[in-house]
Amino acid sequence: MASPSSRRIRAAVLATSIVVVAAGGVGIWKWTRPDGSDAVTCSALLNDTRIHNALGSAYRKNLSCHGLGEALREAGTGDKPGIHSKVQAQAMRNTLQATSDALTKSKQKSIAGPLRLPLAALITDYAPDTYEILKELDADYLTHASDDEPWEDNSGVHMTVAHEDLVRVVRAISDSPTAYAKVRSAEGRYAAHTLAAIPGTAKGFSLSLPPTGNALVLGALDGVAADVTNGLSKRESARWNKDMVDSLVSSTTANIPDYKSNPAEYINNTWAKGLSTTSTNSSKVFHEQGLHYMNIWAKERGESSKPSARQSEDCLDSQFRKYQETVEFLKTH
User: For residue range 279-312, what is the model confidence (pLDDT) as tens digits?
Assistant: First the structure.
C-alpha cells in the first residue's frame, strides 16, 4: 500500500502540472500550432515504403494530405467496426510504425492536421489492441511485439507495435482535442468492458488485474494530454480542454442504461456524469478515472466486490505512475 508521503507527492505533482499549463510559453507553441505547419508532413509519410505497402493499389505519389488520411483509414479498417483481416491489421501496424519513425526522425511531436482525425479513427477501431499496447501487461502482446506481422486467435486478428510507437502517434494527433477525445473515449469504453467481463466467481489476481490495467492505460493518456497542454498558453489550454471535454460529452449518451442490460456503458456513462464545463486534463475526474470505474463497478457487483483501501490506493498509484512515465518519455522523445 502506498504511504501517505506518496499520496502527497502525487498531489504535489498534479498541482504543479496545472501551474505549468498556466505558464506555457510561446516558444513551445510552434510545434502545437493547429494548422500543423511545424509537424510531420504528409509527403514524409508518402515517401515511406511501409505506407506504400499499407495503401496497396490506393497509393498515389500525389495524394493530397486529406486523401492520404482517408486512404490510411480505409486500408486499416473493415466493413464491421473492430473486425479486421490480417491485411488490414498489417496496414495499421505499418501506419503506426512509419508515423512514429517519421516523428522521431524529424524531432517533431505533431503531425499534419488532415491526418489527425483519420489516425484517431484507426486507433479507436483497434481499441482492444491499443488498450493492451498501452497497458504493457498482456503476455501475447509482449511476445508478438517483435513479430513482423499480425496474428490470429479465437477472438480474431490482432496487431501490436512497441508501446513507445503508439504513445508517439497518440501524442501526434492530440493537438486536435477532438482526436484525443475520440481515443480517450474508445479506451475508456474498453476499460469499462474489461471490468464488466470479470466473472462473478473471480478472485485474487483475476479480480485485481483489470482495474490496475485500466489505470495504466488511462495514465498514459493523462500523460499525453499533459504534454499537449504544457506547451500552450493559459488561453490556448483552456480552449483545448473545453473542446476535448465537449467532444467526450457528445460521444456519451445522456441516458445511463441499467447495469444488468449494458454494464460497460453503465460504468462509462456514470463516470462521464462527473464531467463539467470546468473539467480539465488535470482534474481528478481524469486522473482518478480508473478508480472511479472500479468503484462504480464494485458498487453494482455488491459488497463482496468492494475494493479494499489498498486496492484503491494501488489503482490511483498505477494511473499516476504511468502518467509520470509518459510525461517524462515525451519530454525527450
Answer: 999 899 999 999 999 999 999 988 667 888 889 9
* Cβ neighbour number for residue 280 with a 10 Å cutoff: 19
The mean pLDDT of the chain is: 88
- Identity (one letter) of the amino acid at 216? L
pLDDT at 14: 40
Strand 156-158 relative to strand 151-153, pairing: antiparallel
User: How far is the C-alpha of 205 from the C-alpha of 43, rounded, in Å?
Assistant: 47
C-alpha cell at 150: 499480425
Nearest to 14, CA basis, from 182, 271, 219: 219
User: Which parts of 37-170 are beta strand (E)?
Assistant: 151-153, 156-158
Looking up cell 492505460, which residue turns up? Answer: 217
DSSP secondary structure, 76-108, as one string = H--SSTT---HHHHHHHHHHHHHHHHHHHHHT-
Q: What is the pLDDT of residue 138?
A: 92
Q: What is the pTM of this model?
A: 0.88
